[in-house]
Amino acid sequence: MAGRLPDRLLWRLRDWLSCGAHVALRTALPRALLRHRVGVTEDERARLRAAVLAWGGPARLVDAVLHVDAVGEPGAPFLDPGAGPGWDDTDLVLRALAPVTEGVTAIRRAWRAGSGAPVRVVLVAADGGADRPTLAGAVQRALRARGEADPCVEVLGPSAGPSPYHRAALAASEVLWRSAEGRVPSPTRAGQGAQAGELVGHG
Q: CB–CB of 2/154 below 8 Å?
């Protein structure tokens, strides 16, 4: 849902997912899609239905969500690499945090155009064994501690499918840290996974 739901709502849904707050998510997620008139593809609806039903939620809410044939390009453009505010203390904190965080193989940062100041988007590459919702929650909380009210964190697995939002973010991103053997996701491979909860878990 990255780039499709408001940042303020999306980070909170992901925080709930990282904490296992499925009782809240089972109605909050489909209602958020309905309230903001965000459509989903048939594949996304199947994943949303699987997650909501697994959490004990009502299928009728999922059925009411609008349909789209394909996910569109992100509404807000990303700034070209080097065109944003540049490196700051938060980047240095992320660079220090990444090597000691289990499952992280690389971390990048892009700047997305906003109504005011550019918005920081953090892209975390995770290995196959990483708990991606938990990892997203931990990085979000680190950014919140740095004063970012609505942290934008995308955790990308090694075999994720394509997403227009993630392709655009990766193309505009700069590497903050990468492990010696770690692979930085390419714009053609980054995006959403296929497990229940991944619609909000890591974009």
A: yes
Give per-residue pLDDT as tens, 66-83.
999 998 888 889 999 988
Q: CA-based angle 14:19:23, to the nearest 5? A: 85
Report in angstroms the alpha-carbon separations of 42 from 24, 48, 170: 24, 10, 26
Pair 151, 138: CB distance under 8 Å? no
Report how far residue 123's alpha carbon sits from residue 3's, in angstroms, rounded to the nearest whole number. Answer: 13
Q: Give the largest Cα separation in the chain, rounded.
A: 48
Amino acid 56: pLDDT: 96
The reported pLDDT for the residue numbered 107 is: 96
- Identify the sign of the CA torsion 11, 17, 18, 24: positive
140 contacts 153 by C-beta, under 8 angstroms: yes
CA 156 – CA 52 distance, rounded (Å): 22
Spatial CB neighbours of 87, under 8 Å, sequence gap ≥ 6: none
Q: What is the pTM of this model?
A: 0.86
How far is residue 170's CA from residue 28's CA, in Å, rounded to a whole number?
Answer: 29
Cα pseudo-dihedral 187, 77, 156, 107, rounded to 10:
90
d(CA 42, CA 40): 7
